[in-house]
Amino acid sequence: MAKPSSYIKAHMKQVENAYKRGGMTQALAYVQKSVDEWKDATLNIGVTGRSGVGKSTLINTLRGLTGECQGAAENGATETTSEATAYPHPDNEKLVYWDLPGIGTLNFSKDTYFEDERIQFAKYDMFLILSCGRFFEDDKLLAETAQKMNKTFIFIRTKVDVDVESEKRAKPNIYKNPDATEALLSKIRKEVLKGLSDKTEESVFLVDCLDTKWEKYDFSKLIIKLVYGFACLKRESFILTLNVLQEKVLEQKKTVLQKQMWKVCLLAAFRAILGLQIDKDEFAVVESTIIAHASLYAKQLGISEDHISKAALMCKKDVNTFKAELNLQVPHLTNEGIREVIAKFRSNHPRVETGILWLAQVSLLGYEIYGETESLLNNILQAMASDAKRVQAYILDHTI
After folding, report:
1. Are the CB atoms for 84 and 119 separated by under 8 Å?
2. d(C-alpha 180, C-alpha 237), whole Å
3. Whose CB among 24, 132, 254, 325 lies 3.0–4.6 Å from 159's, allowing a Cys bridge?
4. Do 261 and 381 fall into the same domain?
5. Which of 44, 39, 128, 41 is nearest to 86 (CA)?
């Protein structure tokens, strides 16, 4: 029998209490509300720094946009931000990046910057503090103020690509040695740390703001740092909104989807108990639940039919050849395709008994439905996560 985690136990207790207060209807309502809780989590990320450090460019890159896209943050060689400007993520309007005016400009003196009502420094969940070139006292002031306000802040050294290219042009012979670039990056990092005084290397990230694949320098590490800058539902919301599918991001998404699975299984169980699908056999509840969530998993993991078509095009393959070469475990995301995968897992993977004993006391049917749904959904998520890694690796191998 599989034992539920402490996280599931705590939330199951709340469901059990709802059942005791108002029966199955109230318990169902409680779970239905909690399934999409992450979508209601509001995240405000303030992006600040001196003018010209690349705030707008980084905001666009984090939102999966370029400067030419509709809704992109305006950028330019001069200060273009005259007030705190909100830029919601195109896939989640509750995740908002705020382009804050540069500190130390004519309109925003550093002496009044943190009290300025146009900025509302206190409302942000975290700050991304950007700097480029040499370290300024204003950079340290931003970090110290965020720390005093008990706000999470991440220090980002931008335009590192410009520094590297300038050094390569100035010293071409030295940079024939591949270790020279790493030595330069180490030097830049130490200069920043010296200015911040009490911070460690894990607090500073060197990036190219135009790195749309999030893979150069410290960009991938920055994304994971952002993930852990949030707690609970806000972290889940941030992870499920990420749209650049690196391996570490895929792992985070899989973890969140796994964590949410108990709610989905419990909904299936309650629907069966309440007879919401009385015109079908009991397994139809399981099947319809899995078909619906397989589509969600595919979209989150970057293996939906649309994702696969785009990936095949990038690799200059037709879709069928692309799928055949990858030998995907879940090759077809049509209803019939998912039913075939369900049938395969039902025959090859025996169901593991769930440890949700109170549900068995309420309804043996509900207990059975929960266990069946959990077993099949878990197997399908594992297979899809494996497929997603295979797709990303294939793209990397065939597009360089």
Report:
1. yes
2. 39
3. 132
4. yes
5. 44
Q: Which of 220, 241, 262 is the last residue of a domain?
A: 241
Mean pLDDT lowest among 112-126, 234-248, 266-280, 293-307: 266-280
Q: Is the pLDDT of residue 79 over 60?
A: no
pLDDT tens digit string along 173-232? 999 998 999 999 999 988 888 877 766 667 799 999 998 888 889 999 999 999 999 988
Distance (Å, rounded) from C-alpha 70 to C-alpha 90?
10
CATH at residue 58: 3.40.50.300
Residue 85: C-alpha distances to residues 47, 109, 127, 237 (Å)? 10, 18, 14, 21
**pLDDT (tens digit per residue) in 331-342:** 888 899 999 999
Calpha distance 238→232 (Å, rounded): 10
DSSP 149-217: TT-EEEEEE--HHHHHHHHHHH-TTGGGSTHHHHHHHHHHHHHHHHHHSS--GGGEEE--TT-TTS-ST
- Nearest-angstrom CA–CA distance, 199 and 201: 7
Q: Are 184 and 164 in contact (CB under 8 A)?
A: yes
Q: Which residue type occupies 254? A: K
